[in-house]
Amino acid sequence: MPILKQVSRAVSQALQSSGCGCGMSIVPVRCIGVSPRQVASDAGFHSVTFAETDHPRVLITGGLGQLGVGLAKLLRKRFGKNNVILSDIRKPADNVFYSGPFIYADILDYKNLREIVVNNRITWLFHYSALLSAVGEANVPLARAVNITGLHNILDIAAEHNLRLFVPSTIGAFGPTSPRDPTPDLCIQRPRTIYGVSKVHAELMGEYYHYRYGLDFRCLRYPGIISADSQPGGGTTDYAVQIFHDAIKTGKFQCNLKPDTRLPMMYIDDCLKATLEVMEAPAEALSMRTYNISAMSFTPEELAQEVQKHIPELEVTYNVDKVRQAIADSWPMNFDDRNARRDWGWKHDYDLPELVTTMFSFLGSDSRIAQAN
C-alpha cells in the first residue's frame, strides 16, 4: 500500500506541473462543448465550419433501413466516398460495409454520438433512426425511446456543433381530423400512432431549435416509399413493396389493406432526390422548415391492376389487418406539396406506370440471376 501511495503522489505531482514548470489544468471533457443542455438561452454558438466551397462531411443514422443505403450511395457520388459515413446498431452486409465508411452508432448513447460528430468533423446529419408505424404500435416504450429520446440527443448535438440537420417526417404525422384530400403543409395534426406522435414532436422540436438556437433544421414529410433493393420494414404502406416480391416469387399476393385505400406514394429515387435538393437549397429560399412532398397517389386495387399488365396471372386477395387499416384510414389520401415545388423547385420523375416498370426491371433481373445460381 505505501508503494501505491507513493506512485499516486508522483503521478499527481507530474500532472500538476510540466517539465518547464508551467502549470497544467485538467479540464473535464463535457465542459469544453456548448449545447442547449448546458448554456443560457441567450448564449451564442461558436463552431468551426467548412467553407461553402468544401464538400460537407455527412453522417447518416439508422443507415441500414430502407433509405439510408441508397442515400449514402447518392451522396458519395456527389461529395466523395469518404465524406459520407453510414451508421447503425446492426452489422452491415458485406456489400454495404465495403462500399464506404461504416461505424456503429447508438442514438441513445449521447456521448458516443458526440464523439462521432467531433472525431469525424461532421457538418451534415441525416437522422433516419426510427421505429415505423406498425412496429411502433407493437412496442410503444421502445418507439418512444428511439423516436423521441434519440431525437433529443440528435438535436442537442446538431445545435452544439452547428450542423445542418435533416429529419424525415411522414404521412403518419397527420390524423383522422386532418384534411385528407388534399392535406396541406399547415393544418391540424392529431396522429393516433406513437410513430405519428413522435414525428409531429420532431417537426415542432426542430422548428423550435431553429428559431431558438439557430439550428439549420430541414424536414420532409415522406409519403409511402417504394424501393426494389430493400425488404418491407413494418410500415403500413409496405404492401406496395411486398406485391412486387410476391408477384415474381409465387404469383399470389394477399393485401392487408382494403382495395380502395388511397394513400400518397413515391419511388425511392424521387425521395432521395428531394432529400438532397432540400438540403442543398439556400436557407433564404425556404419559407418553412417542414414540407410535404408527393409524386402519386393510388389504391391497392389500382396498383394490382398496373402490376397485372406485367404479370397477368397474378392473383390478388384481401385479408384486412384491422390495426393497419385503422392507421391508413387516418392518413392523407393526397399530399398538397405546392410549397416545395415553389420554394426549391421540387419535381418528381416517377408516376405509377414508370414505378411499376422500374420495380420489375430491378426485381426481375435479380430473380433471374437467383434462379440461374
Automatic annotation (TrEMBL):
Entry's Pfam families? Epimerase (PF01370)
- Give the main EC class: oxidoreductase
Q: Write down the superkingdom of origin.
A: Eukaryota
Report the residue ranges that make up the NAD-dependent epimerase/dehydratase domain in this protein. 58-293
Query: What EC identifiers does the entry list?
Result: 1.1.1.103
- Alphabetized PROSITE patterns for the sequence: PROKAR_LIPOPROTEIN
The UniProt entry's GO biological process terms, in alphabetical order, are: L-threonine catabolic process
The UniProt entry, under InterPro entries, shows: Epimerase_deHydtase, NAD(P)-bd_dom_sf, NAD(P)_epim/dehydratase
Its biological purpose: Catalyzes the NAD(+)-dependent oxidation of L-threonine to 2-amino-3-ketobutyrate, mediating L-threonine catabolism.
State the family named in the UniProt similarity comment for this chain.
Answer: Belongs to the NAD(P)-dependent epimerase/dehydratase family.
Report the protein name in the record.
Answer: L-threonine 3-dehydrogenase, mitochondrial
